[in-house]
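yo

u said u wanted the structure for the complex thing, so here. seqs first:
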Amino acid sequence: GAGVSQSPSNKVTEKGKDVELRCDPISGHTALYWYRQRLGQGLEFLIYFQGNSAPDKSGLPSDRFSAERTGESVSTLTIQRTQQEDSAVYLCASSQQGISTDTQYFGPGTRLTVL
Amino acid sequence: SQKIEQNSEALNIQEGKTATLTCNYTNYSPAYLQWYRQDPGRGPVFLLLIRENEKEKRKERLKVTFDTTLKQSLFHITASQPADSATYLCALDMGNDYKLSFGAGTTVTVRA
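structre next:
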């Protein structure tokens, strides 16, 4: 079937605006992860979903960041009152069971630019 | 917290040669390591997983080693091709059931 998809692929916004990023995982994958990747840097863990619950939100940088997941389906990452330091690529990944030996399947990412 | 270091310099090699990438870690010793490939504008793609009790793992022209004494994994691309040009990321388990910690990656460019 289809892989992980993310939308939009690019988002340019003004400082202070809210943005919503969407992730459609592979069907049947119970686990979903959000990461942030700044230019030239590694993947920074943001949040982990098992089904529609988020047992680990420890990577969310501030209370301006939140995420939801509907069942074992689509997830949205919301950033409120965006700041320039939020500019990065936001990657979503899904895996079958959510154990760390699972392969994580990544989407193409959303490139967020905050002016 | 776990610190992961990959080759800080990009690797430029001639087609046909072997590229060797390093992944060093401190503190917690992972039970296994994963290697991913990332092309520009795309998400990472899984390549190989090696467990702590495995010294070496191979997949086609790729070879990974895992030395828990040195706290190091080496990733080799043999008989390299221009299509191997990409950024390669190592990822370590975090001692829980679900989380990986990723290195910053090493960019490899293979010249024809």
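The mean pLDDT of chain A is 94. The first strand of chain A starts at residue 5 and ends at 7.
cya
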